[in-house]
Design a protein that fits this description.
Number of helices: 8
CATH architecture of the largest domain: 3-Layer(aba) Sandwich
Low-confidence stretches: 227-231, 236-240
Number of strands: 10
Shape: globular
Pfam families: DUF58
Largest sheet: 6 strands, mixed
Radius of gyration: 23 Å
Structural class: alpha/beta
InterPro entries: DUF58 (IPR002881), vWFA_dom_sf (IPR036465)
Organism: candidate division WOR-3 bacterium
Distance between the termini: 48 Å
Helix content: 40-55%
Protein name: DUF58 domain-containing protein
Order of helices and strands: HEHEEHEEHHEHEEEHEH
CATH topology of the largest domain: Rossmann fold
CATH class of the largest domain: Alpha Beta
Strand order of the largest sheet: 5-4-3-6-7-10
Mean pLDDT: 81
């Protein structure tokens, strides 16, 4: 694509996703993500009923009457889009996963910008391909969308561990990390990633976003696979698509167990599905949790 075509594509995504943010997701986002801490704001005179633990004794001594500290929620958040841009994201029977990931990321980015939060990007393959620190503003959000769509990685393999370790090193303040990937491949095996994943989820609000193509879920493989019973020695011919479906289901069950164990909310999306509806439902679930 030339520069004009790139800008046209990015602008199209901006118009589409911004409309959704303004009409559907804006309020849900704000209710779903709140600052995890509080920060000092100012002091005021003590009023009957105030918690005596909030009294500022230094100011009280200077003024000759009791004053209490006031705190406010830490509202501005750092949002990081941790995005898999390996070779598998170019695949798509309905639409390329990379393009769908860009739209999903735009929803998160514009929701954050609308609420005056900062957004950053870390695209990865089997290495950290690039890091764009969190910033505010529309231009910054558009830069992130362009990078997701058109960035050319150095490799096509995938390995999430270097990227997760990099965020553990670089992020000094607690943030919200949308971890967007298909979560497929041998380097996503649970025993391999669980330690780093768990550490990252303890330090930050880690939200896995699984993006899959329907062909990655619905196997239409021809042929049979011979399975031998280790006890009886009997051989049974089983359709290969049933074997693949079983293995994928078992792997996903272990993946979801990892998410639950680390108290992670997650989103499961398909490129041929209504991802806007699924993200809205996710925001509503999060809002209920935050209200408890």
């Amino acid at each position: 694509m030339n520069t004009s075509e790139i800008l046209k594509k990015v602008r199209k995504i901006e118009i589409y996703t911004k409309r959704i943010v303004d009409t559907v997701l804006g309020g849900e986002y704000r209710s779903s993500f709140k600052g995890k801490g509080i920060e000092f704001h100012d002091v005021r005179e003590y009023i009957t009923g105030d918690d005596i633990k909030t009294i500022d004794w230094n100011v009280t001594a200077r003024m000759g009457s009791p004053y209490v500290k006031r705190y406010i929620d830490e509202r501005e958040l750092n949002i990081i889009l941790l995005i898999d841009i390996s070779g598998s994201t170019i695949f798509g029977s309905f639409e390329r996963k990379r393009e769908k990931i860009a739209e999903i990321s735009a929803l998160f980015a514009f929701s954050a910008i609308r609420n005056n939060d900062r957004v950053g990007l870390l695209p990865f393959t089997d290495r950290v391909e690039k890091y764009i620190p969190p910033e505010k503003g529309r231009k910054h959000a558009l830069l992130i969308i362009r990078e997701i769509l058109f960035f050319k990685p150095e490799d096509v393999k995938t390995d999430p561990i270097p990227a997760m370790e990099y965020l553990l090193f670089i992020l000094k303040r607690r943030g919200i990390i949308f971890f967007i990937s298909d979560f497929l491949g041998e380097n996503f095996e649970i025993e391999r990633i669980k330690k780093t994943f768990s550490i990252l989820s303890r330090k930050h609000d880690l939200i896995p976003v699984i993006v899959r193509d329907r062909f990655e879920e619905e196997f239409n493989m021809r042929g049979l696979i011979d399975i031998k019973d280790p006890e009886t020695g009997e051989e049974i011919a089983i359709p290969s698509n049933e074997i693949m479906s079983f293995l994928r289901k078992r792997n996903d069950e272990e993946l979801f167990k990892l998410f639950k164990k680390n108290d992670c909310d997650w989103i499961y999306l398909r490129t041929d599905g209504d991802y806007i509806k699924e993200i809205e439902k996710f925001f509503l679930r999060r809002a209920k949790r935050m209200a408890i």
